[in-house]
């Protein structure tokens, strides 16, 4: 059987699907279609066949998107027999499923979150919803990371209950992100790991950091993440660099291996407006870190309020500020208890093996 993975970057496949690929390679040929971004060699070394494709992933452009469909049709036409297509991220989900439907290749999709287009809700939202309805007709199966997204697709008659199911996010590799003993420190260190987009709550994090500095709390606000080009929601570099220069935040940049920074942190933070199930919080929880996040779609999956973390309000830096202080002022014993609760949640619900088994079982069912 030929298993084809289609995504908007090799990095995302390497970062989120590596162990899935290793498992699939035991019994199948794996082909990856994605824009080459420097990570294709690592995937090729695993044993995958790599196919480069151009995707304008941050904008809707009818001209470039039309050529994406044509190129994808040409590529997939060569793999019509004994193949199944696994789609990730919005354009591969829509266009990959649409082309595979024409070619009668079964399509298995993962909705990792509805993204910015469903946060702002405008004419583009209506258009994307229309594209989903066309593409997902007769889709083989769709995995969702939270019940809100699943219910949204069912209510809008994009899919039915028969061809969808919930899985625990992208899962977390418990062997890689091992539990760390919680230690007592004089300064509380918070860590936010995310792409530098407004919807991730970056501005709220910086504003809360300014208030913490002004009130002289013994708190360190670390930020890890990369700038995103050609995106209306991108945070300006000046905003980040000024906050870093003023010692309001400690901007670390992009890291290939986030584990050393998670180990140093006392608490993970993500003031996001909407998620699938945030991987950074899963990785933090797996290493035993309490969490402060918004009571938003996806984010609430990873927190049991008062047990392993706290919720703040969406788009409210003042609410975030108060929750950060609340955690900071907890006793060490309470923080340690929350640390154990985070690990228990990650290990019992979000083990990556459950996600891999879900894919393997669906592929086996098709075969």
General description of the model:
The structure is a single chain. This protein starts with a strand and ends with a helix. The strands form two sheets. Strands 3-2-1-4-5-6-7 form a seven-stranded parallel beta sheet, sandwiched between helices. Strands 10-9-8-11-12-13 form a six-stranded parallel beta sheet, with helices on both faces. The chain is globular and about 65 Å long. It is 43% helix and 17% strand. The chain is built from 15 helices and 13 strands. It has helices spanning 10-16, 18-24, 40-46, 62-77, 90-103, 117-120, 123-135, 147-155, 202-214, 237-245, 259-264, 279-286, 317-328, 332-349, 352-366; strands spanning 2-6, 29-34, 49-52, 83-88, 107-111, 141-144, 164-166, 188-193, 219-224, 250-253, 267-270, 291-294, 309-312.
């Amino acid at each position: 059987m030929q298993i084809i993975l289609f995504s908007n970057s090799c990095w995302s496949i390497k970062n989120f699907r590596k162990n899935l690929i290793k498992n699939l390679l035991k019994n199948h040929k794996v082909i990856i279609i994605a824009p080459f971004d420097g990570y294709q060699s690592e995937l090729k070394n695993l044993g995958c066949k790599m196919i480069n494709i151009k995707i304008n992933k941050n904008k809707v452009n009818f001209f470039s998107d039309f050529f994406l469909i044509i190129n994808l049709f040409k590529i997939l036409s060569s793999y019509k027999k004994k193949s199944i297509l696994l789609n990730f991220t919005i354009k591969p989900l829509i266009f990959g499923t649409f082309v595979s439907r024409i070619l009668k290749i079964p399509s298995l999709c993962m909705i990792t979150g509805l993204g910015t287009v469903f946060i702002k809700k405008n004419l583009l939202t209506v258009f994307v919803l229309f594209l989903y309805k066309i593409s997902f007709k007769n889709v083989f199966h769709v995995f969702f990371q939270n019940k809100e997204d699943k219910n949204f697709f069912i209510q809008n008659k994009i899919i039915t209950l028969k061809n969808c199911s919930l899985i625990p996010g992208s899962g977390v590799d418990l062997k890689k992100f091992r539990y760390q003993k919680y230690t007592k420190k004089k300064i509380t260190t918070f860590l936010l790991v995310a792409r530098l987009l407004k919807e991730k709550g970056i501005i709220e994090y910086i504003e809360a950091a300014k208030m913490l500095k002004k009130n002289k709390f013994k708190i360190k606000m670390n930020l890890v993440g990369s700038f995103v080009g050609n995106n209306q929601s991108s945070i300006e570099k000046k905003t980040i660099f000024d906050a870093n220069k003023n010692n309001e935040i400690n901007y670390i940049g992009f890291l290939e291996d986030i584990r050393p920074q998670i180990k140093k942190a006392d608490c993970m933070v993500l003031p996001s407006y909407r998620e699938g199930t945030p991987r950074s919080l899963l990785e933090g929880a797996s290493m035993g870190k309490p969490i402060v996040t918004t009571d938003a779609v996806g984010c609430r999956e990873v927190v049991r309020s008062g047990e392993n973390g706290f919720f703040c309000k969406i788009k409210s830096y003042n609410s975030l500020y108060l929750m950060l202080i609340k955690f900071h002022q907890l006793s060490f014993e309470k923080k340690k208890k929350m640390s154990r609760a985070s690990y228990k949640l990650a290990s019992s619900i979000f083990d990556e093996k459950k996600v891999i088994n879900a894919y393997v079982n669906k592929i086996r069912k098709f075969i």
